[in-house]
Amino acid sequence: MSASDARLVLLRHGETTWSAQRKHTSRTDLPLTELGEAQARAAGLVVKSLDLRDPLVFTSPRLRARQTAELAGLADIHVDDELVEWDYGDYEGVTTAEIRETVPGWTVWTHPVPGGETAEQVGARADHVLDRAEPALADRDVVLVGHGHFSRVLIARWGEFAVREGRRFAMSTGAVSVLGYDHGAHTIWAHNLTHRTEGDLR
What we know:
Number of helices: 6
């Protein structure tokens, strides 16, 4: 396997009750909904279609991510505490619309998160995850199972963009993105791939 063929695959967990309600969820350890379980199994079909080579799989310790990894049929799964979601601090369980009632125009990408992580802290954590994952790409593909905002930060940092540019890479529940190389440069081969389940319109 040549380095140019290596793939770094990101998988966002399936739906939870809070993600369905657009509530920011970081530390709160929620299970998947019935639809979320179906999304995880469907994501497994997407991952299978990639024909990954001896994939090394890391997952966030959160239940929703671990369930997704298992239902997607992934093996050789290792828990990585650094794959947790952006810590939303005081905004845990709160929607963007609710935050904007007191902070007009707020987004996690452009405004402070009281009591939570800064963009710089999240970016440093993403860089550390990527620095540890990249050497393994010399021999095998790597799958990272995690969360919406943090996966978007990983995509931005892999592409050598600022953390705030993660806002350009919206990622659905149960979606897959594929990163890799093109002539030695980090590239994004595919983004937000899904195999949608019946009745899922999100």
